[in-house]
Amino acid sequence: MGEPEVSVLMGVRYRRPSTGLLERSVQSILRQSFDRFEVLIADDGSREEAVKELEKLARRDARIRFVRSGNLLTLSEKLNACLREAKGPLIARMDDDDFSHPERFEKQIKALKTQKEIAFVGSNAALYRGEACVGTRIFPEYPEVKDFLFSQPYLHPALMFQREALEAAGGYSESPRRLLCEDYDLLLRLYEKGYRGMNLQENLLDYTLPQTAKGSRKMRHRWNETVTRYCRFRELGILPQALPYVIKPLAVGLLPEPVLRRLKGLPL
Length: 268
Known about the structure:
Elements: E1 6-12, H1 20-30, E2 37-43, H2 48-60, E3 64-66, H3 75-85, E4 90-93, E5 99-100, H4 104-114, E6 120-129, E7 132-137, E8 160-162, H5 163-168, H6 182-192, E9 197-208, H7 219-236, H8 243-246, H9 248-254, H10 257-263
Parallel strand pairs: 1-2, 1-4, 2-3, 6-9
Antiparallel strand pairs: 4-8, 5-9, 6-7, 6-8
Helix pairs in contact: 1-2, 6-7, 7-9
C-alpha cells in the first residue's frame, strides 16, 4: 500500500467503565472509504480494559501504531509525540469517544486538494448524549478571526490539517497555561501565521457531549483559556476591542450549572 497519506493522531486517556465508545471510535477510522492512513495512538492513564481493547484492535489491523515514549500526561504531549512519528503529509484528529462517518477522510482530502487556499478542514457535527442525538453543531464555512471571539468555530476531533501548517505553527503548546484549550491556542496561532481553514457543511462526525454543561473544566482551566485568549488576541491585533471576550470563560464558569444548561438548551 506504500506510505500513508493521512496520519491520524489520537491522545487517549480512557476512563469510562465500558470500552464500547473507544472501540466504536477506532473502528470508525478503520472503516473509512479512504484507506491510505495510519492511526497513531498515544495512551497514558487509561483503564486496563481500554488498553487491552486497543491492543486487540492493533493485532487485527497493522495500520494502528502505538506511541509510547515515557509519561505523556497531557493531550498536547500525546499529540506532539504522535506528530513526531507521523509519516503522512496530512494529519487528522480523532478522539476516543466520537464517531467519524465513513466518507469523512475522503471528503476532507478532496477539499484540501481542490481548495489550495485552505490549510485545514473540519465539518459540522451531530451531538450525542449517551445514545441520543440531541442536536447538530453548525460551524461557519470559512471562519474569520471574529468567529473565534465568542467560541471556537471548529471542532477539534473533526479536523484534518496540512502537515506543513501544523509544523510551521510549532505543533501543540505543552505549556500548563494551555491545558484544556490547546486546540483553541493552536488554531489561533495558525491564523496568526496566515493559514486559514474551512468547515464542510455536513455532519461528518458524531460528537459525544460531556455529562455536564461545564464539562470537565474547572476554574483553573477557564483561567487558562482567559490567558490564552489575551495572548492570542493581542498577537492578532484585536485588543482592546476584544477584551470583553477575553473574560468570557471566567464569566461562564461563575454561572450555576442549571442556568448554563438552560442557556445551552440542555435538559435540566
